[in-house]
């Protein structure tokens, strides 16, 4: 196993569909400008309610990525 140095970023994703969809969209968007993402951790889940129904699911995510040498 190689030694690595990791960077960490925090992002928030949202979706009208589900928490899982919010995670998938957030990671896909982050991957467009952050290379080498290796792991994620959901720090917080929350949502937006309208008319007594969930309108948006939100996830606060920590991303870990390897730094290029």
UniProtKB/TrEMBL annotation:
<dbReference type="InterPro" id="IPR036694">
    <property type="entry name" value="Dodecin-like_sf"/>
</dbReference>
<protein>
    <submittedName>
        <fullName>Dodecin</fullName>
    </submittedName>
</protein>
<dbReference type="InterPro" id="IPR025543">
    <property type="entry name" value="Dodecin-like"/>
</dbReference>
<dbReference type="InterPro" id="IPR009923">
    <property type="entry name" value="Dodecin"/>
</dbReference>
<dbReference type="InterPro" id="IPR050049">
    <property type="entry name" value="Dodecin_bact"/>
</dbReference>
<dbReference type="Pfam" id="PF07311">
    <property type="entry name" value="Dodecin"/>
</dbReference>
């Amino acid at each position: 196993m190689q030694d690595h140095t990791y960077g960490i970023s925090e992002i928030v994703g949202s979706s009208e569909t589900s928490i899982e969809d919010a995670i998938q969209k957030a990671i896909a968007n982050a991957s467009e400008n952050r290379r080498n993402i290796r792991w994620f951790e959901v720090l917080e889940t929350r949502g937006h309610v309208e008319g007594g129904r969930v309108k948006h699911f939100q996830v606060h995510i920590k991303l870990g990525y390897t730094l290029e040498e």
